What we know:
It is built from 15 helices and 2 strands. It is an all-alpha fold. The protein has a two-stranded antiparallel sheet. The longest helix is centred in the C-terminal third of the chain and has 36 residues, at about 220-255. The chain is globular. The model is unreliable at about 160-215 (pLDDT under 50). It is found in: Cell membrane.
Amino acid sequence: MDSPLWRDGFTLFLSIVVQAMPFLLLGVFLSGLLAVFVDGSQLARFLPKSKVSSALAGGALGFFFPVCECGNLPVARQLVIKGIPPHVAVAFLLAAPVFNPVVIFSTWIAFRAMPELVVYRILFSFGIAVAIGLLFSLQKDLQPLLHPAVWRELERNSSPTPPPTPTSRSPLLQGGTFWIGSRPKQGSTAPQPAPAGSLLTLQTAEEVYQSALASAPPIPWRQKGTVLLQTWAREIRELGSVLILGSAMAALIQTVIPRSFLLDYGQDALVSILIMMALAAIISICSTVDAFFALSFAATFTPGSLLAFMVFGPMVDLKAIGLMLTLFKPRAIFYLVILTLQFTLVGALAINYYGG
């Protein structure tokens, strides 16, 4: 084992983590505040009526909800359930992870030596999000797009006399797995055992967290502090682990793979883009800190490929797809992924060939 090689890799790993951690903590802090204290359904009153204007407004919402792709899904799900058109939610989902002040600032810190990439990232992310949102607006029947549970909630909320909700879900996270579906006792927020023979759904704490923030009744003020602390702890645990893993992979690639290999493929206008897009989808690193990951490849990969990583990853990665499955049907997500891939590839190629 070559000790200097591993020492260099560990130094690179630490540098990425140290640079990115303050922005991760800032993003988690704001994400928790917004998830607990902001009612996204109230934004419906301010949305314009036309499809183009509403798609633009949906993309711009991210600037007021500075959360990464981990935190914007509950907001988007609630918007759809409250009657916001799905194409607005699509524009918000795709634009919010980049078009927000935290990510813009972290990207500028990482790429101060290449400010054009900061501008391209903002413009491409916003433009692609709005374009895909407009394409989704052409779908007249919403049922083929939406997850069955979301469609049922939407129908129930739009009904003149909505049926009473049979159960009440606790907004508090609970460890491990537990049973959901029974009626809680009077004055109790904890789930209670259901009568024998009733049909229950086993949910993990992750699933309960998503449903609680997306569709549960308003959280009482006396519980908001507890929910806020649990939200912060959960996001630090999950996003921090992704940051550590992504930083380790970046350091490993930079130190173990021969530099000649990276130069051969990293400088190819098309292959470099495909490599970085695949890497973005697999690593699923948070958009708050992904610019620092991309920066570690700046010496060996083309500008277009770095841009593709920072545009495609926040919109479409394994983590984001998993979250989208709670809002859209798989077919809708497939179209969303394909459209995002095509738009990003064309834009990144244009940067490599014409961006200088």
